[in-house]
């Protein structure tokens, strides 16, 4: 990571101050902390995103690069960011910020120069070193019971029983 990039790095502040609010992050910062989205820092991928480790001077964050932004309506992205900014709970991964970058690019297409917008969208979260939740939830009673606000709510009867009976059988 470029040492100059961390001088005014909002992510550095957020890791040391839990009262800091999620914020708009510059693409240059995300490129810097992920070594330009290096394959060496890739920690996961799925149908709609690739996740990278973002290396800071005082810790690590997870940078989620959305891959299918051509059909992601801008309003939906704004709604997602708004929802993530409202969530604050000790059992939910902390949302650190977002980046919405659109650039006009020129490409050669069938011998002609064509200008189009290139959209890049990113979400940044605290890094959990123990990996994804799916590695810890298992059993025949685990199921997805609802999709609400484009989020899957995972229900585990074991967790539910323990939580609501405070461990009493």
From TrEMBL:
Gene3D superfamilies in the cross-refs: Phosphorylase Kinase, domain 1 (3.30.200.20)
InterPro entries: Kinase-like_dom_sf (IPR011009), Prot_kinase_dom (IPR000719), Protein_kinase_ATP_BS (IPR017441)
A molecular function (GO) term: protein kinase activity
Stated name of the protein: Protein kinase domain-containing protein
Keywords of the record: ATP-binding, Nucleotide-binding
Pfam families noted in UniProt: Pkinase (PF00069)
Entry keyword annotation includes ATP-binding: yes
PROSITE patterns on file: PROTEIN_KINASE_ATP (PS00107), PROTEIN_KINASE_DOM (PS50011)
Binding site for ATP: 65
């Amino acid at each position: 990571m470029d040492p100059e990039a961390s001088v005014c790095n909002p992510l550095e502040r957020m890791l040391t101050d839990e009262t800091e609010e999620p914020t708009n992050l510059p693409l240059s910062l995300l490129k810097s902390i992920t070594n330009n989205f290096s394959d060496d820092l890739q920690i996961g991928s799925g149908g709609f995103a690739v996740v990278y480790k973002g290396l800071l001077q005082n810790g690590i964050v997870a940078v989620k690069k959305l891959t299918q932004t051509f059909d992601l309506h801008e309003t939906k992205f704004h709604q997602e960011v708004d929802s993530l900014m409202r969530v604050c709970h000790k059992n939910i991964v902390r949302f650190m910020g977002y980046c919405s970058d659109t650039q006009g690019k020129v490409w050669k297409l069938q011998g002609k120069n064509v200008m189009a917008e290139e959209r890049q969208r990113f979400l940044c979260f605290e890094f959990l070193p123990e990996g994804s939740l799916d590695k810890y939830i298992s059993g025949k009673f685990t199921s997805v019971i609802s999709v609400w606000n484009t989020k899957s709510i995972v229900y585990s009867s074991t967790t539910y029983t323990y939580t609501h009976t405070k461990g009493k059988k």
